[in-house]
Target: FAD/NAD(P)-binding domain-containing protein
Amino acid sequence: MAEKKVVIVGGGVAGAILAKNIQNQANVTLIDPKEYFEIPWASLRGLVEPSFAERIVINHREYFKKGDLVVSTAVNITETEVFTADGQQIAYDYLVIATGHIEPIPKTRSERLDQYKEENAKIKSASSVLIVGGGPTGVELAAEIAVDFPDKKVTIVHKGTRLLEYIGQKASSKTLKWLTSKKVDVKLEQSVDLTSSTEDHRTYETSNGETIEADAHFLCIGKPLGSAWLRETLLKDDLDVVGRIKVDENLRVKGRSNIFAIGDITDVQEIKQGAYASGHAQLVAKNLRLLIEGGGKERKLGTYKAQPPISIVSLGRKQAVAQFPFMTVLGRFPGMIKSGDLFVGKTRKDLGLEPHVKKS
Model:
């Protein structure tokens, strides 16, 4: 009997972990526009310490050794095939969409590592840094710079009424107090015109008319969902108003028996973060095995329950702010959980790799 064909579109956290876990049970094809997987929540450490990026940028072929890797983007799907931008038509028995968010990053690992080095040089040469956006990315980047380069002037401009709006007020307040103690200037309820600066005159103007002097800036705002390509496909009616894919309790696209969606692209009502995307991947790996081993018959498929709003935001190398269901805490305790290694060793182990890697 021929192996079932599983096509995974997207090589982020969810897609990579699924590909690793299902590659020996089916004929798997992973479609991704880049040749590597990157541990996204650790990328900001890579900006202040480029050697750290060596561990977080992992060629797909390091963990995904058995199936087919297609370095391209998916542009259309039918009931039986996925079409890619480079002209391939890839047949599937089961399809998993894991396209998360769109981020314009290089195709190869070496290009990505070079990019980290360039961004690090930009930070090192700057005496002042402007960060636009006060979500988890902006906060973590500000903290990384403030801890590693305490002499640099760091400013965050955020259009919201508080930092870290995706979690509770207490976490926001504790984080603001911590950043202020590190001399980070936080400007809330403002936006900034990034075009107001020139090469010779690095002054930025905010919507309140304030001016900010900065030698370098980083844009840390939300990335667009990776679902635009689905709007002209057979799944066009399976997207919610913001573009997330509507899934059932088994993480299948609602009303479809052989198409799944996992990770940030789904409409599961929970904080969108890597740990939960990994949970999606592990559940769908189990469900695919059940379907494949059962000859396609419905067996007792695993169900997914939305996870509580738990989040840990690193504040440099030793501290963090953590929101748990019944407690919000800032300091070394949550820092011990996440900030030292940022779960990089664990993630590498989950992919069957050594937790550490020799510098290239």
